[in-house]
Amino acid sequence: MAKTALVTGGARGIGKAIVEELTRKGYAAAFSYLNSEKEAQTLVQETGAIAIRADLREEEQVNKLIRSAVSSLGHLDQVVMNAGISYWGLTQDMQVKDWDEVMNVNLRGAFLTARAAIPHLLSRKKGSLLFVSSIWGIHGAACEAAYSSSKAGLIALTQALAAELGPSGIRVNAIAPGVIKTDMLDGFSQAELDDLAERCPLGRTGKPEEAAKAACFLLSDQASYITGQVLAVDGGFK
In this predicted model, what pLDDT tens digit does every residue of 26-52 receive, in sequence order? Predict the structure, then answer.
């Protein structure tokens, strides 16, 4: 029986790369998307993964997402909470609605997804959860207070759930990507991108597939004795 996985925010960026890597490894995979219909259908054609539209800010839609994934895949082995948005700007200029939007998608959406998936993992006494955090969740970043806070929350959630679910045989980990070349960087100038690359000892920005390989390692049996950990995929960013 093929292992199964659900990836939220799987139509683009790191999420897309995770879906591609999982299906390459023989997983039966499903992924959620919200607005990226064209990208989602292209990924379905390329990988055979199942696309499920869901707004992770809405509790019932998240519950329906998990039910649909279980129905389509038969069961859940791995769940990756990847969906996220960013906000760049000075904290004193940020509107409350913008703060709430970042928290609702990045942290609340991940909580709702994990909460809905946990009973399915518990019923089989195995499986794992993986949260996609960020190095900004470890260090914090100027002009990214909401994003940093939401990603730090994912790290705390990872560690809390690892303690809760470990006795039931379920592992919970996170990756903390650094500067990865996705559309989240589209607003940066080339000079800014060059500066970010220079801050990495490896001298370059990362690729989505590099983050995906780290994610898939933590999901795999090779990481069977690893839980509650945060793996930075950042090229040594300083």
Answer: 999 999 999 999 999 999 999 999 999
Cβ atoms of 39 and 46 within 8 Å: the answer is no
Q: Which CATH superfamily is domain 4-233 in?
A: NAD(P)-binding Rossmann-like Domain (3.40.50.720)
Q: CA-CA distance, 172 to 128, in Å (whole number)?
A: 6
Task: Put the strands of the sheet holding 171-177 in their side by side order.
Answer: 50-53, 28-33, 4-7, 78-81, 128-132, 171-177, 230-233
Express each pLDDT in 138-168 by its tens digit: 999 999 999 999 999 999 999 999 999 999 9
Q: pTM here?
A: 0.95
| Every domain of the chain and the residues it spans | 4-233
User: In what helix (H) or strand (E) does residue 171 lie, and over which residues does it extend?
Assistant: strand 171-177
Provide the token pair at 200: 């990495």
Q: State the chain's maximal CA–CA distance in angstroms.
A: 53
Residues with catalytic function: 147
